[in-house]
Design brief:
The protein is 43% helix and 12% strand. The protein is built from 14 helices and 9 strands.
C-alpha cells in the first residue's frame, strides 16, 4: 500500500511488485508471499472497495464498517469517483436487468416455478445476517430427503442478497435426513448419540448448499466444530474474513455449529450471530411466521412482537435458549416461510416478511 501511495496511485511495474512481495514476506516471518499473491490481494481489496463505495452511494451511507475502507480511500479514492464506480459495475447491462455489484456473482436465474425473482436495487437494512434454515423445510412436503427445487430456490435467493451487498452466514439443520428427538422417543436411543447423527446430517445439507451456491457463482465455505474432510474447522476470525470477501459461510447445524450435540440449530445460529457480529438472525421454515395461539383465526401470525411478549404468550417456533441469547445480545430475529419465492432475499435484506422479533416489538 505504501508503494502505491509513493507512485501516486500509478500502476506498479515488475520491479515494484518484487519490492512489495519482499516487504510483505519480511513482515510475515513464518510465510513468504509471491508477486502473484500480492497482486491478487490488491485486486481483491480494490474490488471490495468498489463494492463498498457503490453500497454507500446507493443507500446514502456516510460511514463504512469495513476496516480497510479508509486506507483504500486514501490510495484509490480520488481516482474512482462514485459515478465511475457505478458505471463500471453496470457495464453494458441493458435497461430492466439486475445490476451486478460484483463480478463474483452471476445474474438472477428463474426460480423453480419459472418466475424471475427480482428486487429493487436499494441499500439492505442489515449488512451481515445469519440465515437459519430448517432441515424440515428442505424436505418440503415430500419424504425425508432434500427437495431439489427448494435447495435451488434457497441458493438463488441467497445469491441475490449477496449481490445487494449482504454478508450471509448460514446455519442449516438436519431433520430432513434424521430427527434425533423422534428416534429418542421411539427407540430409547441415547440422546447424545441421536444428536451426533443429526450433526452429520446437517453437514450433508451444508455441503450440498455450498455446491449449489458455487454453481451460481457465489463462493462459499463450510465450517464445522468437528473434523470433516470436506469442511474447514470452525474459526471465528476466518469466518469473518470470508464474509468480508463476499463469501457465504455455512456452519453445520445441530451441534456441528457449536461442537456440542445437545445444542439446537437455533442456539447454534444465535451463538454464531453473536460471534461474527451479525445484525440479525433470519429463520426460514415451512410456516408463515409465529402464530398467535390466542387468536380465533388459526392462521393469524404476528407481524412484529417483542421477545418478552412472545415468551409470555407461549407462541414460539424457536428454541427458548436461542431467543434468550438473541434478546440479551440485542439481535433481532425474523421467522418466515422460505418456501414462498422471494421471501428469502427479502428477509436477508431486512424487508418486511414473516414475523419480526426484537426488543421493542409491538403486537401486530
Amino acid at each position: 500500500m505504501e508503494k502505491l501511495t509513493q507512485l501516486n496511485r500509478g500502476n506498479l511495474r515488475g520491479r515494484d511488485w518484487e519490492e512489495v512481495a519482499a516487504a510483505v514476506s519480511e513482515r510475515c516471518e513464518k510465510q513468504s508471499k509471491s508477486v502473484e499473491q500480492c497482486k491478487n490481494k490488491v485486486d481483491n481489496l480494490k474490488k471490495r472497495y468498489k463494492l463498498e463505495r457503490h453500497r454507500m452511494s446507493d443507500g446514502g451511507i456516510t460511514a463504512s464498517h469495513w476496516p480497510w475502507f479508509k486506507k483504500m480511500e486514501e490510495i484509490v479514492g480520488n481516482s474512482l469517483p462514485a459515478k465511475a464506480v457505478v458505471e463500471e459495475e453496470k457495464g453494458s447491462a441493458s435497461p430492466g436487468t439486475v445490476v451486478r455489484q460484483s463480478k463474483r456473482y452471476t445474474s438472477a436465474a428463474p426460480n423453480p416455478v419459472g418466475q424471475m425473482i427480482t428486487m429493487k436495487s436499494k441499500s439492505p437494512k442489515w449488512r451481515r445476517v445469519v440465515f437459519k434454515i430448517s432441515g424440515a423445510a428442505l424436505a418440503c412436503t415430500g419424504p425425508p430427503n432434500i427437495d431439489p427445487k427448494v435447495a435451488v430456490l434457497i441458493a438463488r435467493e441467497v445469491a441475490i442478497a449477496c449481490r445487494l451487498g449482504v454478508e450471509v452466514a448460514i446455519v442449516v439443520g438436519g431433520r430432513n435426513f434424521f430427527c434425533g428427538d423422534t428416534w429418542v422417543g421411539a427407540t430409547g436411543l441415547d440422546r447424545s448419540t441421536a444428536y451426533q447423527i443429526g450433526m452429520m446430517a446437517s453437514v450433508m445439507n451444508s455441503i450440498l448448499l455450498q455446491s449449489l451456491l458455487e454453481k451460481m457463482g457465489v463462493q462459499a465455505r463450510v465450517q464445522t466444530a468437528f473434523s470433516v474432510q470436506e469442511a474447514e474447522p470452525y474459526s471465528r476470525v476466518r469466518a469473518i474474513r470470508h464474509l468480508e470477501k463476499g463469501r457465504v459461510v455455512i456452519f453445520g447445524g445441530i451441534g456441528a455449529g457449536t461442537g456440542n450435540p445437545l445444542f439446537s440449530t437455533d442456539t447454534a445460529a444465535a451463538l454464531r450471530a453473536s460471534e461474527i457480529h451479525a445484525e440479525a438472525v433470519v429463520k426460514g421454515t415451512n410456516v408463515d411466521g409465529v402464530y398467535d395461539c390466542h387468536s380465533q383465526d388459526n392462521n393469524a401470525t404476528f407481524e412484529h412482537i417483542s421477545f418478552r411478549d412472545l415468551v409470555s404468550r407461549g407462541a414460539t417456533t424457536m428454541d427458548m435458549m436461542s431467543l434468550t441469547f438473541c434478546e440479551e445480545n440485542g439481535i433481532p430475529v425474523v421467522v418466515f416461510n422460505l418456501l414462498q419465492p422471494g421471501n428469502i432475499s427479502k428477509a436477508l435484506c431486512g424487508d418486511q416478511v414473516g414475523t419480526l422479533i426484537d426488543q421493542t416489538g409491538r403486537i401486530s
